[in-house]
Amino acid sequence: MWRVGTVVALHDETSTARTITLEVRDWPGHLAGQHVDVRLTAPDGYSAVRSYSIASAPNSEGHVQITVERLLNGEVSPYLTQEVNVGDRLELRGPIGGWFVWRSEQTEPIQLIAGGSGIVPLMAMIRSRAAVRSAASFRLLYSVREPGAVFYRDELHSLSENADSMSIHYAYTRATPKNWPRPPGRIDTKLIANATWAADLGPTCYICGPTPFVETVTNLLTVSGNDRDKIRTERFGSTGERK
Amino acid sequence: MGIISRGFSGRRTPTDVKLPPGQYLTTDFPVLSAGPTPHVPLEKWEFAIDDGKNVLRRWDWKSFRNLPSETVTVDLHCVTRWSKLGTSWEGVSLDTLLAGIKTDASYTLVRSYGDYTTNVPLKDLLNKQSWIAFRYDDQDLAPEHGGPARLLVPHLYLWKSAKWVQGMTLMHEDKPGFWEGLGYHIYGDPWREQRYSGDR
Hints:
The complex is a heterodimer. By secondary structure, chain A is of the alpha/beta class. In chain A, 20% of the residues lie in helices and 32% in strands.
């Protein structure tokens, strides 16, 4: 069943990513981590559909936020990041997916690890935790190319300033802020040891990012003793080694 | 027809290519997995067929690879909407693996290392429709893509082609597997666009 969402706000997260807030009158609600299918239709009836992770916490206003990263040679993402205006209507189907989700009943420590735009479904979990005032302990490890590539910068900053909130660590892979203690580099064993929950605390881990990123991080987590059954992943893109 | 998206024209698939509804063409090979990639050593690998009570057949890697294999070229359709055409695989046909097993079961639950499961009707696995594949594009199947061996049942959405297969159970009644229990369609025919549980 396709629903109609009206664009009520647009916000550029970075030079290539935009958050779209949709008002969906008959939205049935969602779980943090779920995604939605978005359908665009051309005047001649041709349509294209892509899935986007929901960025917003479940709420009662029927508002659904997605954050879309513009892909080189993308078909739908250039339209969503450059053409869409407030007041436009988009067709949506969902919410979809019941595995890569955080539920407010969960009380165990939560480790979130994002690569690039993989932050989006994890942000829904962070916002959901705040919305329900969950006492679950959250940690976020967020890998980005450079400081300018961070999504939700101000919101994450205020979360990390708040003492009873959550700890947030960044891994900058190409360029760091000034005086950053760690040189640019990918997530490695040392950072996993310093910035994530110890395996013996039994955290549930949610990893989202490009396929090679998720492969690397899940291997580091299992080597450091995390239970494979407690690692949930969402990957995008190919392995990249061959066409 | 849906709401017209002002200013959207889209990037059409060439008209000589016929894709299932709602799919787009890709040339790379995206990966979707719900958890860590299992790395299964060949000396520990096995594939077993059971009926829920007894193991009917069991192969280790050596005896599995001694079975006659086939090279097939098939199209892949992922529920996340990409399709990849003309992919080349080598594998053992399920006709070969199920030969000589007498059963009145109609359904199967395919099981993987890493605890993934998916259900496929038995008739969809027979008559040159499915393989346990161990090579892709003339190379040993990479773990990310399901190696050492994965099910290949290309006429259904790709989540049915379970990676890292370990065995299958023959069943009299259909039973949802992993994704089928999480909102995805029980059968998953791309040409009928059976993506989610509400789809006909």
